[in-house]
């Protein structure tokens, strides 16, 4: 993997690569080759973003005590 001068970016890139590898193992197809109806892609994105909001809310609770 090519690295940048920013260690934060490097960590994120490594996570993307791990996630891609896991997806290939789980689904047997790359994102480039995945073929789903558009509405399924939208639904998947909505679900991922809803999860992200929940994680952020939980972290706010921890931060604010």
Keywords:
2 domains, 65 residues, mainly alpha, 2 helices, flat
Q: What gyration radius follows from the Cα positions, in whole Å?
A: 16 Å
What is the helical fraction, as a range of percent? over 70%
How many domains? The number is 2
Q: Please report the total strand number as a whole number.
A: 0
Assembly state (oligomeric): single chain
**Uncertain runs:** none
Task: Give the rounded overall mean pLDDT.
Answer: 96
Q: How much strand? A: under 5%
Order of helices and strands: HH
The secondary-structure class comes to mainly alpha
Number of helices: 2
Query: What is the approximate shape?
Result: flat
The largest sheet is: none
First-last Cα distance:
40 Å
Write up what this structure looks like.
- It contains two helices and no strands.
- The termini are far apart.
- The chain has 65 residues and is mostly helical.
- It folds into two domains: 1-34; 35-65.
- The protein is flat.
- It has helices spanning 7-27, 38-64.
């Amino acid at each position: 993997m090519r690295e940048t001068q920013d260690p934060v970016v490097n960590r994120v890139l490594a996570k993307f690569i791990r996630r891609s590898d896991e997806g290939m193992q789980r689904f047997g197809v790359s994102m480039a080759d995945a073929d789903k109806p558009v509405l399924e892609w939208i639904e998947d994105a909505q679900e991922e973003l809803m999860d992200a909001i929940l994680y952020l809310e939980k972290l706010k609770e921890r931060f604010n005590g």
